Amino acid sequence: MRTFWKSSDTRTKRSRQCMPRERLERRNNYMDFSFTEEQELLAENLVEFMDREYPESLIKECDEQKIFPVEANKKFYEAGFGAIGVPEELGGVPADMVTMCLVTSIVYRYSWAGCTYSPLSIMNAADKASPEIRTEMLEGLMSGEKRHSFGNTEPGAGSDAAGIKTSYKKVDGGYVINGHKIYNTYASCSDYNIITAKDPEIDDPYKAVTLFAIPNPTPGMTIVDLPTIGQWLEPTCETFLEDCFIPDKYLYGKEHGGWVQLMKHFEAERLLCAAMYLGQAETAFADLCAYANSRIQFGQPIGKFQLIQEKVCRDKIILESMRNMVFRTAWEYDQGKSIRIDANICKLLCTEGNWQICDDGIQILGGLGYCTDHRMQRLWRDARVGRIGAGSSEILTKTIAKDVLREAGQYGGGTRALGI
Ligand SMILES: Cc1cc2nc3c(=O)[nH]c(=O)nc-3n(C[C@H](O)[C@H](O)[C@H](O)COP(=O)(O)OP(=O)(O)OC[C@H]3O[C@@H](n4cnc5c(N)ncnc54)[C@H](O)[C@@H]3O)c2cc1C
């Protein structure tokens, strides 16, 4: 795939030198923000598919009944969209990160998690599953018929992700696991619940963690659903592990290598997570604009009132910032650059931005926004957890600030510290 942006690297030593005006202009001529023809064609086909297979009536029904749209998801994979971004040797269609973010954002315009698109989960399974279960796992994921859940969070270990207490013991022919996971998305319906556990013999928390793929059901593993205020297409669960024995073949990756393995795709996962919230915000923004134009009060559309225009303007600025940040970071990833700071900025910007847009959406829709007939309330409920899960806004803020200040310190101040 061609990349969609060809600017020079603003962080290289050369470009940080002072540039004459005409050179700067010449460089700017190379900036290209458009998607490639292939990406545009793919987006068109995907939108057409999603309009047909994921109509709002289906998602509304699934949300009300708290069920996952199994058939629509299966069709997504049958149509080949689920293979986008998966390496060729695994039967996929290789794609760059820009394309994966594009697909993710379009899919999430239609529903929160009504589709299991996740090329990174497939790559994770290819990397980590033992030879005995690898083929079965990959076939299940590539057909969209199987799905995994992932549980690290525990009642005593949330933001402090390394503070888990779940432990395992090697025994003849396998492992015995004891512990308690919480907010374990989709665990009750998953085929494998992938969990983290520590070897109690090792003190260093980062070296003690091992991943296990526990088939669901397994004796000793009890999963219960937790009531939540949103994201109802997939259950949020609590998992209890009591002397849960699993054979050796369910070791997921290297023993004691769990932390390193989790970090392997960490930044890409965070970026794709931001693309999900971008997709949701695009829908909320389209809905609030349509309503501002059509709702008549005092003899004119409410969009003519300046206090409504202020919200529309603010949300447009937020949405465009989200888009620019997500696709620029994806482009950086495709160029092999570090996205350590930018992936965190994307997640923070997109979850906070999406929340603001959905909340403005409720306000602009007035009473209708508060009623369940309109999807805005669903978007608003689904948006809320973005600021808590997978790195809360507070944790991201402190991490970004720490990394930016460290980077600034390396350059000794001035605009060079900002990569300019
Ligand atoms: C719907 C849902 C689905 C989830 N799915 C999964 C899943 O599939 N797998 C999984 O492993 N986990 C999952 N989680 C867990 C999620 O990642 C955690 O909720 C998150 O890490 C925060 O942990 P906590 O809820 O224990 O909050 P805490 O860590 O207790 O934090 C409480 C508050 O304190 C703030 N805080 C904590 N530390 C600091 C600090 N150093 N500085 C400033 N503020 C701080 C937090 O930002 C937050 O506002 C899910 C959570 C939810 C709600």
From TrEMBL:
Q: Does the keyword Oxidoreductase apply?
A: yes
Cofactor names: FAD
What's an example of a GO molecular-function annotation for this chain?
Answer: acyl-CoA dehydrogenase activity
Ranges of residues in domain Acyl-CoA dehydrogenase/oxidase N-terminal: 36-145
List, for all copies, the residue spans of the domain called Acyl-CoA oxidase/dehydrogenase middle.
Answer: 150-244
Q: Which Pfam families match?
A: Acyl-CoA_dh_1, Acyl-CoA_dh_M, Acyl-CoA_dh_N
Q: Would the keyword Signal turn up in this protein's UniProt record?
A: no
Sorted keywords for this record are:
FAD, Flavoprotein, Oxidoreductase
Record PANTHER family: ACYL-COA DEHYDROGENASE (PTHR43884), ISOVALERYL-COA DEHYDROGENASE, MITOCHONDRIAL-RELATED (PTHR43884:SF12)
User: Can you name this protein?
Assistant: Acyl-CoA dehydrogenase
* Organism name: Adlercreutzia rubneri
